[in-house]
What we know:
The radius of gyration is 45 Å and the shape is rod-shaped. α2 (22-33) packs antiparallel against α4. It folds into 2 domains: 2-90; 109-341, BirA Bifunctional Protein, domain 2 (2-Layer Sandwich), CATH 3.30.930.10. By secondary structure, it is of the alpha+beta class. The two termini are 85 Å apart. It has helices spanning 2-18, 22-33, 38-44, 53-91, 109-122, 137-140, 173-182, 224-239, 292-297, 314-322, 329-332, 335-338, and strands at residues 127-128, 134-136, 165-167, 188-197, 209-220, 245-252, 255-264, 281-290, 305-313. The structure holds 3,4-dihydroxyphenylalanine (DAH). 3,4-dihydroxyphenylalanine binds next to β8 and β9.
Amino acid sequence: MKERLEELRDEALAKVKAAEDVKSLQEVRVAYLGKKGPITEVLRGMGKLSAEERPVIGQMANDVRDAIKVEVDAKEVLLEQAAIEQQLAEESIDVTLPGRPVSSGSRHPLTIVVEEVEDAFLGLGFSVAEGPEVEVDYYNFEALNLPKDHPARDMQDSFYFTDELLLRTHTSPVQARTMEKHEGKGPVKVICPGKVFRRDDDDATHSHQFMQIEGLYVDEHVRMSDLKGVLEQFAKAFFGEDREIRLRPSFFPFTEPSVEVDVSCGMCAGKGCRICKQSGWIEVLGAGMVHPRVLEMSGFDSTKYSGFAFGMGAERLAMLKYDIDDIRHFYTNDVRFLAQFKRA
Ligand code: DAH
C-alpha cells in the first residue's frame, strides 16, 4: 500500500507539472483528491491492515494528499497569473500607432466667398438682407427703373413663369424691397447675397444659375467718394492689402452715374500679364449712385436722400481669388474640386 501511495503521489505530481492550463489542472485535482479518487480507494482498503500499520498508512495517505494539494494550489496560482498576463498582452493598446483618419466634408467655395464678403461688409456696419428667388416683374425690373419696354431688359434674358412672375435675374430687387420696408427713413445699409438666373448657354464663364452679392447704402449725404472708399476697403479685405481699385464710367438703369469697378491684378501687381490681358486691371463689379427715380419709387425723398449700390458675382470673385478656370466646377460637385477648400 505504501508503494501504491508513493506511485500515486509521483503520478499526480508529474501530471501537475505537465498541466498547461487551469482546466487540465482542475482535472488532476478532481482525479486525485476527489471522493472517487484512487487515494480514497486506498483508505477504504485500510480495513484489511493490522492495527500497527493502519495509523502509519493513514498518516501517509494524508501526507500524500496534502503534498498533491500543495502542488496543485501552487500551480493554479501560476497558471492563473500566466492567463492574466497573456490576456493583457493580447489586449494591450499601442498608443504610438497612428490614429484612423476621420474624413470631414468642406464648405462649398461659394459659401466661403459669400461669408467672407459678408464679414468684410458687416465690419463696415452693413447687415444682411434677403429676398425671394421667384420674383415679380415689378421688383426685378420696374422698381429699378426698367419699365416694360426698356431695351436694357435684354441685358438680362429671363426665365418667366407668367408675364408678371420670373426667376430673379439679379439681386437688385432686394434693394427695392429693403428700401420699401424702411418707409422713407434712412439709413439703409445692407448686403444681399443670393441665387440669380438667366437664360444663358452654360460655358466656362456663363451659367444659367449663379450667385450675386448686392450692396446698398442710402442715407443723407451719401456721396460717390463713400462708394469708392467702401469698395476699396472691401477689395483690400477680400483680395489683399496691396490691391487697388479704379472706377470706369458705365451704364445701369438703376444708377446715375454708373461705374464698372476694377481691382488691380494680383498676378502682376498691375504691370500687365496673361490673367489681366496686359491691362493690369480686372473687372469685378458694377456700381453707382442710386438713381433718384429708384429712390422715389421705393418711398425715399431724393432731394433729401442719396445712396450708392453695387452688385458682384460670387463665382467671379471665387474664380479670381482661387484661380478657378471654369464656372461649371461650382455646380458639378466633383469632390476632388470641393475637397481643395477644406480648412487646413
Ligand atoms: N444688377 C446688376 C447686374 O446684374 C449688377 C449691379 C450693377 C448691381 C450696378 C447694382 C449696381 O446694384 O448699382 O448686372
